[in-house]
Amino acid sequence: MRALGIEQTVARIRAGRVTPTVRAADATQADAWARQIGAGGIHTFEFTATTPGWEDVLRHWSASEPDATVGLGTVTTAETAERAISAGAAFLVSPFAVPEARAVADRAGILFIEGGFSPNEIRAAAAHGVAKLFPANIGGIGYLKTLLSVLPGAQITATGGISLSEAGDWLAAGALAVSIGSDLFTQPDIAQASRTLLDSLRSSERTA
């Protein structure tokens, strides 16, 4: 897959609205979950560096699934960043500031989404492009609104403890996108849950 520019990657994340975190027991499960959300219409997501075999599944999806925009989350070292970029990651996500990993992404022209929670951490991350509010459920939607009131125009994704039913509220509050993990991947029919979620978000946008 041809590498995306940072602005194009951000545009895809914004358009997708939901960027699931595929944190699986192994690469086989990660691949299966990715296929199920894809069948449900979600094509922007992240595997995680905590999943055994993540490199192989990331490389496969980056090379052979042109409709997907696939990143790697839980990037905490420069080495992991380098391996992810080599495997074709369209973007990298960290749970906290990792300057050495950001430097690797910057050199490669790859979007790096840095996690933070305090106003200063979010300000610093957003100054580079996109910040990740993590863990989002601790502060809640009101906290995101407060952050955006003092950081107008900041691009902030929300991750951590977000349920399917809350996704639309986070987006309405100003999140660039939301990342959902366990509440999606514990559904009995992941593809149908993905379709239902996207339908709900579209309906909310039409009535907003």
Automatic annotation (TrEMBL):
InterPro entries in alphabetical order: Aldlse_KDPG_KHG, Aldolase_TIM
Pfam families (alphabetical): Aldolase
Pathway assigned in UniProt: Carbohydrate acid metabolism
Superkingdom of the source species: Bacteria
Example of a GO MF term: lyase activity
UniProt KW keywords: Carbohydrate metabolism, Lyase
PANTHER family xrefs: 2-DEHYDRO-3-DEOXY-6-PHOSPHOGALACTONATE ALDOLASE-RELATED, 2-KETO-3-DEOXY-6-PHOSPHOGLUCONATE ALDOLASE
Family membership noted in the UniProt record: Belongs to the KHG/KDPG aldolase family.
Subunit structure: Homotrimer.
UniProt protein name: Bifunctional 4-hydroxy-2-oxoglutarate aldolase/2-dehydro-3-deoxy-phosphogluconate aldolase
Upper classification of the organism: Bacteria, Bacillati, Actinomycetota, Actinomycetes, Micrococcales
